[in-house]
Amino acid sequence: MITxxxxxxxxxxxxxxTCFTAVxxxxxxxxxxxxxxxxxxxxxxxxxxxxxxxxxVQKLYGLQKLEIQDxxxxxxxxxxxxxxxxxxxxxxxxxxxxxxNDHVRQLSLxxxxxxxxxxxxxxxxxxxxxxxxxxxxxxxxxxxDGKPVLIDFGQSVTEAEVDSxxxxxxxxxxxxxxSCNVIPxxxxxxxxxxxxxxxxxxxxxGYPMTPSSRQAQQIKQTFGLFAQNIIGQMxxxxxxxxxxxxxxxxxPLFVYKQETSLEKSQQILSEYxxxxxxxxxxxxxxxxxxxxxxxxxxxxxxxxxxxxxxxNTTNSLRDLFGNVTLSRINSCIxxxxxxxxx
Length: 342
Hints:
Layout: E1 6-13, E2 18-23, E3 29-35, H1 38-50, E4 60-65, H2 70-79, E5 89-94, E6 98-99, H3 100-104, H4 109-128, E7 141-144, E8 147-150, H5 174-177, H6 184-201, H7 214-223, H8 225-234, H9 245-249, H10 252-255, H11 262-277, E9 280-281, E10 288-291, E11 306-308, H12 313-321, H13 326-334
Antiparallel strand pairs: 1-2, 2-3, 3-5, 4-5, 6-7, 7-8, 9-10, 10-11
């Protein structure tokens, strides 16, 4: 019915596109992304070209008008109302047979964490290109040869800050969606933190995980302090205080292959936090920001004590934390001052 394609089968429908699987003239199974909105398809194609050198991003091929036999158009319009017309255009994408959930459920927990770390590396590569996915969730991740592949960049942005986000996914931070200013990098990190929580518990978080929450205590008791800490840092309510992807990749959860005792875990996390925030020279006046070397699992983000030795508070802390003032950091710390339970 569609010229140059056979075995066309419905796959899924989005806000502006509809996807089908098909077999092309070279007998390859592909994904057809169909829409009358040529601008939507062109935007997706331009992003794909920008990310073309990243192996873990779905490859998309040229935008073209969809050739439909006249005798078949009426049948297609009846079968798929509002999708096919004489103005329909199509992007052809590479097809991946294995979905994220199908792959992950076959893995042991250590294997799941290794796979998730590969996903973090992949998302960081995309961010380094100045692209933010904004809809990270299991259905938008496929698997090829055991490696993660990102698909569906329909909600992606290339700005460092946006006014609003339209995303009702169970993995998205709802408090960011309703915010006037959204930081796309931190939005993606929250979604990933939600997916990491799902790896451990089988379901995403309904809201940010605070140190005293039931979810946090269950994670700590069942899987250890490392898991509790990184999920808490990734799902911070305050966007600025969410951990970066670079820091995620250095987190003890991915460095140490197994959880240690609580005391040893606290020591390791103290060293990790100190490496991130301690003994850092401030350009210009060369002043040092010191941090306490003690870590409490009741605080997910930064050490409990932050001593600032320069009068240029805002500029100095921006270098370390990214537009976060000392008062905001202290207020966040004070809000979670509960001693960890042995």
